[in-house]
Amino acid sequence: MLDEQHVAITDSEWELMRAVWTLHRVSTRQLIDIMQKERHWADSTTKTMLRRLIKKGAITQVGETRPYDYVPAVKEQDSMDTAAQDLFDHMCAMRTGNTLAAVIESRDLSQADIAKLQKILNEKAKTAPEMVACNCLPQGMGADCMTEGGERNGQ
Amino acid sequence: MLDEQHVAITDSEWELMRAVWTLHRVSTRQLIDIMQKERHWADSTTKTMLRRLIKKGAITQVGETRPYDYVPAVKEQDSMDTAAQDLFDHMCAMRTGNTLAAVIESRDLSQADIAKLQKILNEKAKTAPEMVACNCLPQGMGADCMTEGGERNGQ
DNA sequence: TCTTTCTGACTACAGTTGTAAACTAAGAAT
DNA sequence: ATTCTTAGTTTACAACTGTAGTCAGAAAGA
Predict the structure, then answer these.
(1) Mean pLDDT over all residues of chain A?
(2) Which chain B residues contact residue A93 at CB under 8 A?
(3) Has keyword Plastid (chains A, B) (predicted)?
(4) What are the angstrom distances between the C-alpha of A78 and each of A103, A119, A154, B10?
């Protein structure tokens, strides 16, 4: 399984993928019903999404007989991690911490999740810098953007 | 400033916005130079992006005289937080923790950032559930997706 | 003032995304 | 075997994106 990795999944497609990932193996019928209940999609909309995801290599069609089945071709956790990393990649490094704080604060996390994050943070604290610089401009361009406190003009 | 909030910023637009946010107030010329150095954009590409962002309400044109200036109309931290929340909103809640772990692990965070996150986590730990359920399917549809360990078939 | 140079505004255009109708070939029912 | 019903395949289409060329009106220079 030479994992084609890095399939770009769009907003709407995420919904379909979640169903496929969760059920491991689904029929078009199941997907149509789920998406209908969840997003009020017309049958054809689900079919189109399914077809696009297959072309993109995110889903694989399986089975010989006619009502085929569909299984995920990419891993859910990988896709999630990649999507998140990609997002943070184009946001100011100096503000990453704040955004992470906002997300963590608003999400339900299990005891195990929290323990895991705490462990990572403790480890990271050992070598963390006093402050992270803004990386929004190509070097040389524009006066350096941060003020004394490490906080850019508090908006 | 009746903050129109919730302007959807696209991938390419993020780059332009970062420059505007960082410089607080810029001229078209500056932006063109920055984007040229950073993304090899043609002058017109930068102009188009700028114009679209203005129309979207993410940037405001200021000044009376001809070479106008441009200032952000939405706050950077808000936009970042919103984008991150939106992303996590359509991903499996059960796996959020893992993705956050991946992101935290790969990012540079300052001592202050880490301290802040640790504080939030400690607080959260007090009331965190033993496990977070998968929320990928409309209730009722499909067998519940998690196995004993709280981990869906380890992919 | 006349010409050159910016810079702001409009146009272009292919590819993607969100949504969905239409058509066709397999199975299922009669 | 004939017809009905699914399920898979094509086509549609407007809005949005990434990229960029063109043109007209201001500013600046000659």
Answers:
(1) 90
(2) 107-108
(3) no
(4) 19, 21, 35, 22
Q: Are B118 and A118 in contact (CB under 8 A)?
A: yes
Please check whether residue A99 is in contact with residue A91, taking contact to mean a CB–CB distance below 8 angstroms: yes
Contact at CB, B108 and A102, closer than 8 angstroms: no
Q: Find the mean pLDDT for residues A20-28.
A: 97
A41 beta carbon to strand C: under 7 Å = yes
- For chain A, how far is it from start to end, CA to CA, in angstroms? 49
Report the C-alpha gap between A71 and A17 in whole angstroms: 10
Per-residue pLDDT of B17-36, as tens digits, reads 999 999 999 999 999 999 99
Cα–Cα distance between B94 and B96 in angstroms, integer?
6
Name the CATH architecture for the domain at B11-72: Orthogonal Bundle (1.10)
Question: How would residue B143 be classed by pLDDT, with cut points 50, 70 and 90?
Answer: low
First to last CA, chain B: 48
Which CATH topology does A1-90 take?
Answer: Arc Repressor Mutant, subunit A (1.10.10)
